[in-house]
Amino acid sequence: MSANNVTQKRRGADWKPSNDLAAVNEAARMMDELAQCGFGRIKGLARLALLSLETPEGHRDVSALVAALTTIGMIAEDTANCINSEAGAVGCGHDDAAWRRRADARRAFHDSQREGVAA
Fold this sequence. Notes:
Layout: H1 21-52, H2 56-60, H3 63-89, H4 97-118
Helix pairs in contact: 1-3
C-alpha cells in the first residue's frame, strides 16, 4: 500500500469501475477488515488517552497523550490509504484532485530544490 497517496493511478476519460463481482466482493471484504482493525486501534488509543486524563499525573505530563493523539492520526491516515488502495484496485478509489495538485506541486518543489543542491 502506498502511503500519502489518494489513488494509485489517475482516472482517464475511459475509466470504468470493475465488473468482476468476485474482485469487488474481495475488495469489500478486505476494506471491512482494514476498517475494523484500524478503527479498533484508534478506539483503544482514544480510550487510553481519555483514561489518562482521569488522573492528576495525566494532566502533569501530557507527553503520553500527545504520543497517543499523534499515533491516532497516523493510524487513521494509514487505514484510509489502505482502504483507498483496495477500492482503487477495483476502480472505485476516491480521487481527490485538489490533493493531487498539492502533491504534484510539492514534488516539483522538492525536485527543484534537489537540482539546486546538485548544481
